[in-house]
Amino acid sequence: QEKQLKNGNTIETYAKYFFTHQGGDTAKLSTGAVYDFDAADSHRIRFGTRYTSMKGDASFYTGLAYEYEFGNDIAASFEGYNTPSPSLTGGTGILELGYRFTPQNGRATYGIQLMGMTGKRRGISGGVQMHWAF
Predict the structure, then answer these.
(1) What is the pTM assigned to this prediction?
(2) Strand order across the 108-119 sheet
(3) Which residue, 96, 91, 88, is CA-closest to 125?
């Protein structure tokens, strides 16, 4: 849900659900060793808020979110022996920063984003985007 503020800026709150499925597989090495990987499903829910500041044709945004991964351990075996299985269950705090630019009367939108995570998932990711409308 997005709310327009008096100065033209916006604040948005959201809830998102993510589902991912990775099929299982078997790999045989040139040495004859066999690895078996079970299929894995991921269920995550994210709650967050994002503040966007408009400056002419550009917008800057910052956001905070909490994401929780519901329990699903991944299993694998090597030569019939079970390998250690990492647990995906747990929470992650997310901070995002970004910039978007849409030239007036243009059909392209440009953007750059940076996201930091702490908790069960840790790290930094980023991206550069260009969208062209026909």
Answers:
(1) 0.78
(2) 2-4, 10-22, 40-55, 58-69, 90-101, 108-119, 123-132
(3) 96
